[in-house]
Each structure stands twice: as structure tokens, then as C-alpha cells.
Amino acid sequence: MAFKKYRTSILLAVTFTVLLSTFWYMPQLAFIIFISLLLQLLLLPLTNKLACKIPRALAAGLVLLGFLSLALLLIGLVSKSFIPTFSRFVTDFPQLTEQIQNIPWLRESDFLQGQLSDIWSEMKNASTEVLKSSLTLLLSFFSKAIDLVIILFVTFYLLKDGEQIQKYLASLFPARDYERVMHLFDKILSALRTYICSQLVICCITAVIVFLYFTIRHLPYASVFAVVSGICEFIPVLGPTVASAFGTLLTATVNPMIALQTAGFYLLLTQVNHNFVYPTLIGKSLNLHPIAIILGIVLGGELLGAAGMFLAVPFIVICKLVIEDIYKDRVLTREKEQTSRWLAKKSEQAK
């Protein structure tokens, strides 16, 4: 009897548990689907506008082609500054590590020296492994290119037939809860769209501000720090902290006073992002506590590495909305039962 009452809630919980578990058992397939979904959410508003004037398939193709062209253009523009600077940074990295280890207030602490030595040795070993495996990376590029093509095709069909797919999935649940499931899907997609669009805006703003700061101060590796800061913004809370520590430490090789000023700059930038930019762009739509975000990112990193850290917040958002929907349905079901019992009692008393 209980299963019948809460059948849709149980099915929702099981369905989303199975879908999320695919990231553990089939990470490549799940990652392709999830990235395609995020691209679809990003490009859907423009596709809907164009679909009012031209066939939807043509609108989806044009929007996807325009996005791909813009992405390639941006990558080309960034690469002109980033690749030479990054090559110089890789070449200078051993000297930079020695300069950091020779900073007076670090040199006097045996504990910090030991920790830094371990970190630098691991990074050097990792760099060596990357150089050794460059041939393997070139050989595996073909498979990555195929993944990119698959993502583009999946995104195209999601843009073209996403609404029909959503209705079909909702029809698999009990008919009486069709509207409820459709409403849940809309809430999840809306929250994910808000999150991904906001993250892209914040990442671009952060990268530009960091690039301008390092350029105006005539500090080296401006584009490297800008790209690192922009990418790290995709990992809320922990990412900006890592980027700030990275930038501050390496500017300490120029001048300790400049490193202190850089730390103040990163602190100010982080506070502005999290107290003004985030609330303005995201508002209360996600309503996630920082502790939940941090623990989710740590757990995602333990399970799936960098991909898990990036996908942690969307996972938490989906789980939160599903749990809230199940709880709300349970409360409504109990209220209906209590109301029906009260009406039945009143009817008996009237007789």
C-alpha cells in the first residue's frame, strides 16, 4: 500500500540514483551525456527564438555551428598569448620553485620547507610523466576527437527534440503524476541552466580581471594566471582558493611586497565574486550551503578526480531538487489523507 502511494517518489529516487551512478561505472558515456546536456541548456534560449522563424532542426544546427565557431575563435585568440607564455612558464618553473623555497620566511620554517619540497617534487615528477606520455596523448587524440563529435551530435538532437524527450520520460511514470514529473524536470533544467551560465560569466570576468591586474603591474605569466583563475572558478569555494595561493606564491619570486598586494587583490576579487556577483547571477535559485558544496567537491574529487569536482555542484543541485520533490509529495499525501479522514468523520457524525 505504501509503495502504491509513493510509487512515483520511489521511481524518481531510483532513476536518479541509477543515472548518477553511471558516472562511477561508465564515466566516459555519462560525461558525454552530461556535457551535451549542459551545452543544450546553454544554447536552448537562442534556439527557441530562432525556431519561431525557421524549422527547429535548422535553428539547432545554426546555433550549434555558431557556438562552435565562437569557441574556436576564442581558443585561437587566447592561444596566441597563452601558449608562448605557458611554454616560458614551464621552462622557468624549476627556477621559480627554487626562488620560492629561498624566500626568508619560508626558509626559516622546516615544516613549510618539507611540505613545499614534497609538492614541488610531485609536480616535477608529474611534468616528466607528461613529457614522456606526449606521444600517447597524440595517439589518443583521435578518440577524444570522436568524443567531441559525439557530444556535438547529442547536443544537436537535444536542442532539436529535447522537449519530446522530456515528455516521453515523464510519460514513463504513473499518469496521475505526469505534471509533477514534468515540473520537476523543468526545475532541474532551469537550475542547471542558471548554474552553468552564471559559472561561465564568472569565469570570464575573473580571467579578464586577473589578466588586467598582472598586465598593469607588469608581472610575468599574466595569461597563465588568468587561465588558471578562470578554470578554477568552475570549482566553487576550493577552486578560487587554490588559484589565489598559486598566484600569490609565484609572485613572491618577484617581490614579497608584491606577493602581499597580490594576496590582497585575490582576497578582494573572491569577496566581490561571492558576495555580489554570485548572488546577482544565481540569486537564491540554488540555495546551497558552502559546507555542502565543499564536501560535495571533496567527495566528487575522491570518486572521479577533476571531472567529479567540476560536476559536484550540479549533482548536489539535482539531488536536492529530487529530495525536496519527494518530501513535498509525501507531505501533500499525508495532508490529503488527514483531510479525507476528517471529511469521513464529519460525514459519519452528520448521519
UniProtKB/TrEMBL annotation:
Origin: domain of life: Bacteria
Membrane-related topology note: Multi-pass membrane protein
Protein keywords: Cell membrane, Membrane, Transmembrane, Transmembrane helix, Transport
Family per record: Belongs to the autoinducer-2 exporter (AI-2E) (TC 2.A.86) family.
InterPro entries named in the record: AI-2E-like
This protein's GO CC annotations: plasma membrane
Transmembrane feature ranges: 30-46, 58-78, 137-159, 192-214, 220-239, 246-269, 289-318
A biological process term (GO) from this entry: transmembrane transport
Main location group: membrane
Location(s) in or outside the cell: Cell membrane
Recorded coiled-coil stretches: none
Name the record gives this protein: Predicted PurR-regulated permease PerM
A Pfam family annotated for this UniProt entry: AI-2E_transport
